[in-house]
Amino acid sequence: MSLLQSLKARDRVFDFMATEASPVDVRHGPILYMEDVTVSFDGFKAINNLNLTIDDGELRCIIGPNGAGKTTMMDIITGKTRPTEGSVWFGSRHNLLQMNEPEIASLGIGRKFQKPTVFEALSVFDNLELAMAADKRIFPTLTARMTSEISDRIDDVLETIGLTALRFQPAGILSHGQKQWLEIGMLLMQRPRLLLVDEPVAGMTEQEMERTAELLTGLAGKQSVVVVEHDMGFVRSIARKVTVLHQGSVLAEGSMDQVSNDPKVVEVYLGSDEEESA
Amino acid sequence: MMTQATSSQFWLTRPFGERATQTFLGVLFAALLLVTVLHLAVPQGHPLHVNAYTVNLFGKYLSYALLAVAVDLVWGYLGILSLGHGAFFAIGGYAMGMYLMRQIGDRGTYGHPVLPDFMVFLNWDSLPWYWHGFDMAWFAFAMVLLAPGLLALVFGFLAFRSRVTGVYLSIITQALTFALMLAFFRNEMGFGGNNGLTDFRELLGFNLRSDATRLGLFIATGVALALGYILCRAIVTSKLGRVCVATRDAEARTRFIGYRVERFQLFVFVVSAMLAGLAGALYVPQVGIINPSEFSPLFSIEIVLWVALGGRATLYGAVIGAILVNYAKTIFTGIMPDAWLFALGALFVLVTVLLPKGVAGLLGHLKRRKEDDHPPKEAAA
Q: Is residue A236 assigned to a domain?
């Protein structure tokens, strides 16, 4: 659209005013596409011929026993680990294997780690400010000013994650569950297209879990969300589509009922996935 | 605590809005004024008179304080424990020393119009290439900042790119300053060997041996300390400063958010090295000599002790620590020179055990107790 046309279109914000959307091309369907990916550490194959496709706006749960390669898979997507073989595409345009961690992050892939790592010495507000999608080079960061636009955006996210009252407290005093939400909030500040969430409810109370389930299902649709989780009860409460990993490759894929009745899955989980959740 | 009002300002003027900075600058300028008045207006022999020797001593402390601020910037806020900041200080000092040597002209012992005495003594017939330009003040003063900055840039680039941090980085900074010390001890390096550079006469035409110049240098050092403090404060209160703290506490996480951590580390490290160089350049004309002992690993460790004692990550704590320890050093080495190192060690142990956050932590604690008694109006944010 030419500049003139964009100025005349009254139904939308001027293009040059809108924050630049992530340049990911999802016209061909999936937002994440992993094909025949293999990672071996000294001969041990942590990931073995993994094929995985995530659609735009989807909420996907990934389950699997310990050592199934869930965390390694996340490491590959975020650029921390390089696969020995295979290809990983973000949309149909970006080959993630040719990018480093910051580039992948700025492209719109956000990751929440298993153990919450927030910046404890900084306030909740500052944590969100740092995570915000912005020009992250040195001098723009040095001269950055707090505008009302930015603080409104931070307030929105504070509202979403329910930490408004604690905004000026140092993140170090937050409870475990609150830290997890703050982390999710930090991911949201980056306006990600794809959220990778590693064990969000580990160590949470029942109420915190419910709150987290609400938060994650509320995010899907706007973003694609991939949740890796051990807790079957939690997975059942949020999942629409579940992928089961086993020994580095996909064992089964489908709705929660489909996979939990799959004999291969039952075998891997020793006959009872409900016990595993305990 | 950060409020939105303070961070909406222009980054360089932001520190002026802070209570801590206002207090610091107020105390510093009051001290400068007091010493000046007591030196000039109070007659000699009066118990309150501050003599030229003491003014000179205070000037030296202030240059150490600037050095400590530089170390606190990288250690307190970025988590990089540099045990080699003495090297940047010494290089800045050597740049100043080279200028001062060239100012001697033909008044040296051997009377050579260009060559400093030690080169004549070594039978050199021309100036080494890196000594050219140091007869011009602007060039030498630029080198005071650029030479340490360049060394920090190259060293930091290699270290941070390879993600060398923590104790390994501390060890290689220590090795850096040790290697430089050995190099500068050699006569062939052209920096005067173990004697270093000395016998200075004039700085910008002012006689270095006059009391007025000493007072001027003392005030100039105080102003440099104020400016360096404001610059560091502006950095640490900016968003970049928060990125530094984030890097200090969770480096991998900061990288994941999309910051090029190694570039931020490099930037702050270079700024810190340049401030250390400036401190060295102000130190040299006040003590009248620069030699390779400034590169000694022990000195660099001592700087870190000042900061630890004063209190990390406050900047003013570094200033307090540098002045306190050096004042104590002056007194102790006067009374019983052999006991100084023991006293320093004891001081360090006591502070670590009793005041883990240093003197600044104690001040903060007292302030908070006072506030609990009389809560200030804006306490509830």
A: yes
B8, B9, B257: residue with CB nearest A130:
B257
Do the chains contact at B259 and A129, CB–CB below 8 Å? Answer: no
pLDDT tens, residue by residue, A74-98: 888 888 888 888 888 888 788 888 8
Euclidean distance between CA atoms A8 and A5, whole angstroms: 5
Q: Does A136 touch chain B (CB under 8 A)?
A: yes
Note the pLDDT tens digit of each residue in B257-288. Answer: 878 888 999 999 999 999 999 999 999 999 98
Number of helices (H), then strands (E), belonging to chain B: the values are 15, 4
Count CA atoms closer than 13 A to B246's CA, side-chain side: 32
Whether B4 sits inside 8 A of A190 (CB atoms) is no
Measured CA to CA in angstroms, residue A27 lies from A31, A92, A232 at distances of 9, 8, 33
pLDDT range class, residue A6, cuts 50, 70, 90: low
Chain A residues inside the 8 Å CB shell of B267: 138
Who contacts B201 (Cβ-Cβ below 8 Å, separation ≥6)?
B100, B103, B104, B107, B207, B208, B209
DSSP state of B50: P
Tokens representing residue A262 in the block: 């799959």
Kind of pairing between the strands at A44-55 and A30-41? antiparallel
ipTM: 0.78
What tokens were used for A189? 């500040």
- Domain contains A15: no
Tally of domains within chain A? 1
| Domain span including residue A126 | 29-276
Query: Is A105 domain-assigned?
Result: yes
Of A78, A111, A136, the CB nearest to B259: A136
Closest CA to A155 of A125, A190, A191: A125
C-beta separation of A181 from A128 below 8 A? no
Residue A187, SS3? helix
Nearest to B201 by CA among B130, B105, B120: B105
- Crossing angle of helices B137-161 and B85-104, in 10° steps, is 160
Residue B161 in contact with partner chain A when CB distance is under 8 A? no
Rounded distance between C-alpha atoms, residue A261 and residue A268, angstroms: 12
Identify the CATH number of the domain in which residue A200 sits: 3.40.50.300
- Candidates A67, A63, A18, A64; CA nearest to A39 is A67
Domain spans, chain B: 4-374
